[in-house]
Structures are given as C-alpha cells and as structure tokens.
Amino acid sequence: MTETVRFNPNGEIPNHVAIIMDGNGRWAKERGLKRTAGHREGLRAIKRVVVAAAKLQIKVVTVYAFSTENWKRPKSEVAYIMQLPGLLQDELLPELMANNVKVQIMGKEEHIPIYTKHTIKQVVQTTQNNTGLILNIAFNYGGRDEIVQATKEICQEVRDGKLTLDQVDETTLSAHLKTACLREFADPDLLIRSSGEVRLSNFLLWQLAYAEMYFTSVKWPDFDEETFLDCLAAYQERNRRYGGLS
Ligand code: FPP
User: What is the position in ligand 1's atom list of the atom closest to the CA of 84?
Assistant: First the structure.
C-alpha cells in the first residue's frame, strides 16, 4: 500500500517550478468539446497554480504554453492558442497584479502574429515592476533550438576574439540561454507534467539536468491547488544529491 504524502508548509519549497501543461485536448474530447475548450480551461488552471505558487513564495513558475513544434497542429488550433495571451490579459491580469506577479515571455518572436506580440508586450509591461513570483511563459519555445542559438552566439564571440575557446564552459552556455535573466533561479528544481505522458518534449533540456520530476495523470484543465500541493509534497520527499552523496 502506498502512503499518501502530505505537503508540509514548513518543509522545503522549490524556488523554480517548470510545468508541461498537457492533456487539454483529451480533457475537451472526453466532454464532447472542441480541443480549444481544453486550452481555454487550461488558462484557468494557470491562474489557480500561479495564485497558489505566489502564496507559497515560490520564485519562478515556467509554463510550456506553445512549443516550436506546435506549429504542426491544425491552423485553427494554432490561431486559437495565439489568442490566449489576449484572454490572459482580460481574465488573469487583475489577479496577477493583486498577487504581485511579474510576467515574462521566453521564446522566438518569428511567426507570432502582430496582435499576439502586441498583447504579450502589454502584459509584460503592465507587470514589469511587480516584485513577487515570476510567471515565465514559454511561447514558441524549443529547448534544442535554444541551445543551438546559444552555441551560435558563443561561436561568434570566439570568432570576434571576445572569448577564448578555453573560457567556454557550462556557465558560458547558461548565460546565453533564455533563462539567463532568472539568474540563480534559472534551473528548475521541480518539473511537473500533467496528463500521464512521461517525456520532456523539448522543454528546458539544459536547465532540467538536475530537476526533480513529477508526472501526474491529472489533465491540465483539472489541475488545481490540491494537485499542486501533491506535487510539492512529493518534491519534499526527494533527496537531491546532484551526483554526489547525501
Ligand atoms: C498541451 O495539451 C497544451 C498546449 C499545447 C497548450 C497549452 C496552453 C495553455 C494551457 C493556455 C495558456 C496559454 C498562454 C499563452 C498563457 P494538448 O493540446 O497537447 O493536449 P492533448 O495531449 O490531450 O491533446
């Protein structure tokens, strides 16, 4: 029999939680709804998690909202996802402001419609002076692409004589990734993936090297504060050794 682990409010809390919000489509299908209804409901799940994370004084929550591979989806679904920053602005912004949450976006700008870029810019600007939780939204993001871009930048610096080959190390590469602005919190402590799938799907490949991973069968639109606390409770049970001994 497995004992249910309870979240300890006085126990260790991860600084950075990364989430692969999976299962929106299946959640909608189970209810006879369009896949987009799952994404719509997924936005509400983000609100629940962000409010819970802010209360717990977690420093960063990174959510995987749209990958560089998601362009392969039907045009209508992609078009809907491109409208989600607008819905986030309309429905989440007051709550984000009330909870002192700063929104950041991580990903490539190319192919993103102008209206989506404009809304994202507005949300980022409105929350830029907030000093609490950072909600880092991975939008048109891919881990391999990020590493390729960082490598190109480093090669250019070596070619320009700004850096020698011997100076290139793990810190150099980390500094060229999109998470560099998160400084000491760049690498997630905990990765959560919902919906029962057990893979990384090109998410934060470098940064997750020593993250604890937690996979839940709960589909993202059903993910709530209780599910989140279950994830954190499991994290509190882990013994992080970073390759060393405990
Ligand atoms: C994965 O579920 C989910 C996505 C690709 C989109 C996630 C987007 C949100 C939750 C909304 C937030 C967006 C912004 C911009 C804040 P899936 O569609 O792969 O589900 P399935 O595996 O059941 O088909």
Answer: 15
